[in-house]
């Protein structure tokens, strides 16, 4: 009976190892990463919020670039804006509602490269307790095919969302509905 259990445990370990073989794990370097969100304001200008506290992880496969696990966590409580009034409104119940929903999260699960350094990552964005599909257009400073060589990689990404889909419907006459998101994530090898 003990031999059978040992066989089952070894089989499960082998399956887990096979599933992650050929991938390189990274951690997001918070000091070298940030997110910004820009939205039209009064139809003549724009407002930008910066999110300096970004963390998470990534797994890239040098041999199969479509295999990607990207987990970006953004602490919305740390957001900053150009003025205190805007900052307080964005942190409040009508926008991010940081007391109830302190984290924004992007989970990327499939990447399609358009060349050795650029492509798209399909995934989902969760903000304010709402999850929606989002496509992140990405560029790498080092080709993902070079993952595993022990060097850090910087990923920059852009996405456009409709804020109303995340329950942020207030001030519709003065604040645009389309939000342009820019991500910079410095990925350092885990371990």
Short description:
The chain is mainly β and 191 residues long. The chain is 14% helix and 50% strand. An eight-stranded antiparallel β-barrel has the order 1-4-5-7-8-9-10-11.
Characterise the protein shown here.
This protein has 2 helices and 11 strands, in the order αββββββαβββββ. It has helices at 2-20, 84-91; strands at 24-28, 34-41, 45-51, 54-60, 67-75, 80-81, 103-113, 118-127, 130-140, 153-162, 175-189. Helices cover 14% and strands 50% of the residues. The chain starts with a helix and ends with a strand. Mean pLDDT is 88; it is low at 1-20. A hairpin with a 3-residue loop joins β2 and β3. It has a single domain (23-189), classed as Beta Barrel (Lipocalin), CATH 2.40.128.110. The protein has an 8-stranded antiparallel barrel with strand order 1-4-5-7-8-9-10-11. The chain is mainly β and 191 residues long.
